[in-house]
Design brief:
206 residues, mainly alpha, 3-stranded antiparallel β-sheet, 5 helices, 50% helix, 12% strand
């Protein structure tokens, strides 16, 4: 009888220990899942932060040239701000300037010379503010201009193969967000490069 009771007590303790072990394993599993969820949220937060940073810089570059073109409507109308190059050239080019914006300059500059200075400053700004930065301007005063800002995004890649993703090429039917984020065929943007397009209308006197 005593042996039977002893065996029951031992069996009960073993079951309790087994239950405790299972509870511990379940707790560890839940903790691991929680940590993985937190890590995922952190990665997403970093990704959104980088995207926000890039959008801010693109906006800064776009606003800069917009103000310059509106301040020089004559040269804008004559197409002196137009700059249509492929990504490779636009990301490495150094344009010629005339020093018209220098505070020490005493020489009066023509609207065209001012435009040349503006373009040099603007393109350099795009190259310096954005990774692999570049920019182009196309269009005319009667139908409007399109400012295309480009930059290399190391996170813009296939999630499975980790190879850089190519941006969508603009087509005539592109509208809305698709129009703003597509890359013109003329810029020949390589994989990993994002494009951001903005329309601009400038009043140009006759």
């Amino acid at each position: 009888m005593k042996h039977k009771m002893l065996n029951q007590i031992i069996s009960t303790r073993n079951r309790q220990r087994g239950a405790t072990l299972i509870e511990a394993l379940v707790s560890i599993l839940l903790l691991s899942l929680g940590l993985l969820g937190m890590a995922s949220l952190q990665l997403n937060a970093l990704s959104y932060q980088k995207s926000s940073w890039a959008s801010h810089k693109v906006s800064e570059v776009t606003v800069d040239i917009t103000e310059r073109m509106r301040a020089n409507p004559i040269a804008t109308k004559e197409g002196k701000y137009n700059y249509e190059q492929n990504y490779t050239l636009a990301s490495t080019a150094t344009l010629t300037g005339n020093g018209c914006r220098n505070s020490t300059s005493t020489t009066a500059c023509t609207p065209e010379q001012i435009a040349q200075d503006d373009m040099r400053t603007w393109l350099t700004k795009a190259q310096q503010l954005l990774p692999g930065g570049a920019a182009t301007i196309s269009g005319e005063s009667t139908t409007g201009f399109v400012i295309t800002t480009m930059y290399f995004d190391k996170e813009f890649k296939d999630p499975i193969t980790s190879t850089p993703t190519a941006s969508t090429t603009c087509v005539s039917a592109s509208t809305g967000i698709a129009w703003r984020n597509c890359c013109p065929a003329t810029v020949a943007a390589p994989a990993g490069v994002r494009c951001s397009r903005s329309p601009l209308f400038v009043y140009a006197p006759d």
